[in-house]
Amino acid sequence: MYPEPENIWQSLEYSGLGTSIAESAWMFPTIETIHVIALVTVVGTIAIMDLRMLGWAGTKSSITQMSNDTLPWTWGAFVLAAITGGLLFVSKASSYVINPYFLWKMFVLVLAGVNMMYFHFITYKTVHEWDVHGTGQVPVMTKVAGILSLTFWILVVFFGRAIGFTLGIFY
């Protein structure tokens, strides 16, 4: 039915799970739909936080309170997006790993993660000094983190969408 796998990507793609998703009339589109909904939730909740960090929206709420309200949604949706993204990947692994848009999406996701970690472990440590319901002076590094985050997540969406239009043309 399928040729002998030559590499790890083909092994994933030709696995029972990979072929089930790829060959099913409903599995891939259902998983992709859930992936998109989860990603929209991730990007939406992150954008809410980023816009607050920049002082462009939600300034009646403290950054701490907004973070407490959005972070559970962000992480829950991110986990769901990662699981569904992994399932989509398994179904066409060989095509994804040679697609430059997929590779760029993964690279930008790493940058977004590094930006988030730097913000949470360095900049956010002093939040109690500047987080006052829209009246505190937000540090420049907080604003930089917000701009970078918005930029990275817009690029993740762009590259992710480009994958769908270019899958299978990079052989």
UniProtKB/TrEMBL annotation:
Protein's name in the database: Uncharacterized protein
Tree of life domain: Bacteria
